[in-house]
Design goal:
By secondary structure, the chain is α/β, with parallel strands linked by helices. The chain has 2 domains: 171 residues, P-loop containing nucleotide triphosphate hydrolases (Rossmann fold); 64 residues, no CATH class. Helix content is 36%, strand content 27%. The protein is built from 7 helices and 10 strands. The chain has a 6-stranded mixed beta sheet, sandwiched between helices. It has a 4-stranded antiparallel beta sheet with strand order 2-1-4-5, covered by helices on one side. Helix 2 runs parallel beside helix 4, helix 3 crosses helix 4 and helix 6 crosses helix 7. It is globular and about 50 Å long. Bound molecules: adenosine-5'-triphosphate and magnesium ion.
Length: 246
């Protein structure tokens, strides 16, 4: 079971003339089979938070770790853009991220490609796939390394509404099946309410504004009263953030 632990995290990027504070004293923990959405306006530090958790950036102060049984956990990262290598086939892109390429690893890669409905495309080049299909390869690839925790940075934001809805459902059923810890960055409050156990709202300047637990059964119908009320509550927080920002 993975534990995400963020303690008094601060990140400052040195700028010309003025430093940029991307994160300011952010603390939260998430453990085991949980789906946490991180929401907030553009520039509030969401990607920086994921990058620090992934080890791509370093904190200025504080700590951010993902551990399993006291050691560093295995972490999958789904980027906002699919980031497939154009000169490798779909299957080779799947295998590229694996430490070794045993039959078992190939079988696992095939299984996750099947889960996202792309078995038939395993020999295709990325350029032969639609944006949504490429994003599905990115998601299958992140799951196929069998990570303890999954970091996702607005993975559906560039897709049309229908494709995004289909992928959200796929992601939800994969999460239910594999019981990962997921940290999911999104601008889309409806998406966050549909998918999450918990929503962490960041505000401009990188401060944690609210940490909401969502005690609603899955699957969630946007037309359901409680789901709609929760969405309205999070949107109200957003409106206040806008008032603060302007
Ligand atoms: N490598 C960097 N160097 C300098 N400043 C950076 C760097 N990365 C991010 N920043 C700054 O840190 C702040 C937070 O950026 P970040 O990308 O984390 O925001 P975000 O919440 O992911 O925004 P968006 O929703 O637009 O993706 C911004 O002001 C940004 O300009
Ligand atoms: Mg971002």
């Amino acid at each position: 079971m993975a534990t995400v632990s963020v303690q008094n995290l601060r990140k400052v990027f040195p700028g010309e003339g003025r430093d940029v504070v991307a994160l300011e004293d952010v603390s939260f923990e998430a453990s085991g089979h949980t789906f946490v959405s991180i929401v907030g306006p553009s520039g509030c530090g969401k990607s920086t938070l994921l990058n620090i958790l992934a080890g791509v950036e370093t904190p200025t102060e504080g700590t951010a770790d993902i551990t399993k049984d006291g050691s560093r956990a295995r972490v999958g990262y789904v980027f906002q853009a699919p980031r497939l290598l154009p000169w490798r086939s779909v299957m080779d892109n799947m295998l590229f991220v694996q430490a070794e390429q045993t039959d078992q690893v190939r079988e696992r890669a095939s299984r996750y490609l099947a889960m996202v409905g792309l078995s038939e495309q395993h020999k295709a080049w990325p350029a032969q796939l639609s944006g949504g299909m490429q994003q599905r390869v990115g998601i299958a690839r992140a799951f196929s390394i069998e990570p303890d925790a999954l970091l996702m940075d607005e993975p559906f934001s560039h897709l049309d509404a229908i494709t995004a809805r289909g992928l959200r459902r796929e992601l939800h059923s994969m999460w239910m099946e594999t019981k990962k810890t997921v940290l999911f960055v999104t601008h889309d409050v409806g998406e966050a309410v549909e998918l999450s156990d918990r929503i962490v709202i960041l505000e401009k300047g990188g401060k944690l504004r609210k940490d909401l637990s969502l005690d609603l059964p899955f699957p969630r119908d946007p037309a359901d009263d409680k789901v709609a009320l929760t969405k309205a509550e999070v949107l109200r927080e957003f409106e206040e953030l806008d008032l603060i920002a302007t």
